[in-house]
Specification:
The structure holds 2 protein chains of 2 kinds. By secondary structure, chain A is α/β, with parallel strands linked by helices. Chain A has one domain: 3-Layer(aba) Sandwich (Rossmann fold). Helices cover 35% and strands 27% of the residues of chain A. In chain A, a hairpin with a 2-residue loop joins strand 4 and strand 5. In chain A, helix 3 packs parallel to helix 6. Chain B is mostly beta strands. Chain B is built from 3 helices and 22 strands. In chain B, strands 1, 2, 5, 6, 8, 9, 11, 14, 16, 18, 20 and 22 form a 12-stranded mixed sheet that branches. In chain B, strands 3, 4, 7, 10, 12, 13, 15, 17, 19 and 21 form a 10-stranded mixed sheet that branches. Chain B starts with a helix and ends with a helix. The relative contact order of chain B is 0.09. The mean pLDDT of chain B is 94. The chains are: A alpha/beta, B mainly beta. Bound molecules: adenosine-5'-triphosphate and magnesium ion.
């Protein structure tokens, strides 16, 4: 179980980005976090993975208080995070990063299995370096594969759909469904995609640094779809008038 | 051959007790072994120290080993090696250099290598440099490489120096004929008080000639590196140089690229990036469970691979 209590994070100038967030995520669930751009989803993910340190509040995972643990310790405790903006490395190959993620060497069939889940062919990609020569969609899919390779207890995917073609996206949605079916850990997916929202167990709406709404998909999704049909984007913006 | 030479040979070339095919081993300024092959002839120079290596036209798939070792202090070895690569030959040349000193005296190797490639010849040239030994005497390697590429020839130079050499000054120059290609891949790591200076000078004389220089380096401790490159295009040609350097601790690096286009269709590009390891790279590897130190090691090892 992941439990966030009164979590807060500010910019150095004092501007609040995450404001008193309380959230409980049950094991084995597929949670989709959505909400308007700039609402604080990525920041929340970074706080959970330890890339940022909260100014207030507490994070508990698997019965342990992990608030003070650094990135490495949280990773070793089973938290995996696929960046919204993947990092490029001159010199490291696709194979290198997947092996680091898996914590040991991988044979070709294992590489095929991992890359296949994001619609990539291992023989074509495993020796490519993670440089700017890889396209945006390619590096994004490799980033997702690194998190799949970790087999974490909690896997966070930050907008996995961004820049990915229709075919790979369908493959990815299947992968998320498979992972849930196999009960391989908790999945926290940040997404704006209806297809991903529609496979969620629970949906959390983050807007203006707060939890705007949270609950079972059946309850939250219809309200989001109704909002979408309105002329304005009302998420987190009650004060907007036409 | 002494045991230090054997050890150095293992590091700088694929020496496993012996070499296959043509070779010449230089130890403390002397010849410690030589063998020619039917297609590759190695002979001593008569006017100065060094050898002439003749690769007959059309020779394919052979490797020539010409490693040089300095195994104690107070040696200042200077050698001239000339390679004549016949028309359409396709060979690999392995020229490692190891210097070792356990005393306070300097051990230095200064190899001047000239390559003359005839039309259509192809060469892969590998050069690995290393310094070993506990002595305080400076270990220096100062290679000079001059390549003359005739029409349609191709030379790929892979040069690596991964530690222990106190000071190095490497000068590489080339003149390229029509459709000739030169590719240089250099990787250097310095630490402590070491210094490394590289100086490339390439003239693209022939139509459609091309050069690609890629330098990746890591400067740790208080070491200092300098990268100078000059590409001169005198015809329709392509030139690309790229210098990437990672700074660790108090390491410093200077890069001074120069491009000169003397023809309207000369397309010359230079890219240089110097800085410490990007924080987000370390963070990404830490999210995979590595510590900060492990992440840094992996990034550097991959970068210099
Ligand atoms: N390091 C930072 N410096 C300045 N502003 C920041 C920083 N990190 C986050 N912010 C700001 O905090 C807000 C929330 O950012 P965050 O990236 O968490 O949003 P998001 O919900 O993930 O948005 P998106 O849907 O566009 O990915 C934004 O206004 C962003 O500009
Ligand atoms: Mg985001």
């Amino acid at each position: 179980m992941l439990k966030l209590e009164h979590l807060a994070w500010e910019l150095p100038d004092g501007e609040g980005i995450i404001k008193d967030v309380d959230l409980t995520v049950q094991d084995g669930k597929l949670i989709v976090v959505t909400g308007p751009n700039g609402g604080g989803k990525t920041t929340l993910a970074k706080l959970i993975a330890g890339l940022e340190t909260p100014s207030k509040g507490r994070i508990a995972f698997d019965g342990k208080d992990i608030t003070k643990m650094d990135v490495t310790e949280r990773a070793q405790n089973g938290i995996a995070y696929a960046f919204q903006q993947p990092v490029r490395f001159k010199g490291l190959t696709v194979r290198d990063i997947l092996e680091l993620a898996a914590g040991g060497s991988l044979d070709e069939s294992e590489l095929c299995g991992l890359l296949g889940k994001v619609g990539l062919c291992a023989s074509e990609y495993m020796n490519r370096e993670l440089t700017a020569a890889l396209s945006g969609g390619e590096i994004k899919r490799i980033e997702i594969a690194t998190v799949l390779a970790r087999k974490g207890k909690l896997s966070i995917f930050d907008e996995p759909e961004a820049g990915i073609d229709l075919w790979s996206f369908s493959r990815l949605v299947e992968t998320f469904e498979d992972l849930r079916r196999q009960g391989s850990g908790t999945l926290l997916v940040i997404s704006h995609q209806e297809r991903i929202l529609s496979i969620a167990d629970e949906i959390v709406v983050i807007a203006d640094g707060k939890v705007r709404a949270a609950g079972p998909r059946e309850e939250i999704l219809p309200t989001l779809l109704a909002d979408e049909k309105a002329a304005i984007c009302p998420l987190g913006r009650e004060d907007v008038s036409i | 051959m002494n045991s230090i030479t054997e050890k150095l040979l293992g590091i700088v070339s694929d020496f496993k007790g012996s070499f296959q095919g043509a070779f010449n081993i230089r130890e403390n300024g002397q010849c410690a072994g030589r063998q020619s092959s039917p297609n590759i002839h190695i002979e001593s120079k008569t006017d100065k120290p060094g050898i002439d290596i003749h690769v007959l036209p059309g020779t394919k798939g052979e490797t020539v080993y010409i490693p040089a070792c300095v195994t104690h202090g107070d040696v200042d070895d200077l050698v001239y090696n000339d390679f004549f690569i016949g028309k359409n030959a396709d060979v690999r040349i392995v020229a490692g250099c190891g210097v070792h000193t356990d005393s306070e005296e300097e051990a230095r190797h200064n190899g001047i290598h000239r390559f003359f490639l005839e039309k259509g010849a192809r060469v892969v040239y590998e050069e690995k440099h290393v310094g070993t030994g506990k002595g305080t005497g400076a270990k220096r390697i100062d290679p000079v490489t001059e390549v003359t590429l005739d029409e349609d020839s191709y030379l790929e130079m892979d040069t690596v120096q991964l530690g222990g050499v106190d000071s190095t000054m490497r000068k590489t120059s080339g003149v390229l004929g029509a459709r000739a290609k030169l590719i240089v891949r250099e990787r250097i790591m310095t630490d402590g008080e070491e210094t490394a200076k590289t100086d490339f000078k390439v003239t693209l004389k022939g139509e459609d000639s091309g050069v690609d220089l890629m330098s990746r380096s890591v400067a740790k401790g208080h070491s200092h590196q300098e990268f100078i490159s000059s590409i001169r295009g005198e015809n329709r040609c392509t030139g690309h140089s790229e210098c990437d350097a990672i700074l660790v601790d108090g390491g410093t690096v200077g890069a001074a690229p120069m491009l000169e286009a003397y023809h309207v269709d000369a397309a010359l590009i230079h890219e240089a990036a110097i800085g410490k390891i990007a924080g987000e790279q370390i963070l990404k590897l830490r999210t995979l469970g590595l510590t900060e130190e492990e992440a840094q090691e992996k990034i550097i090892a991959g970068f210099l691979k």
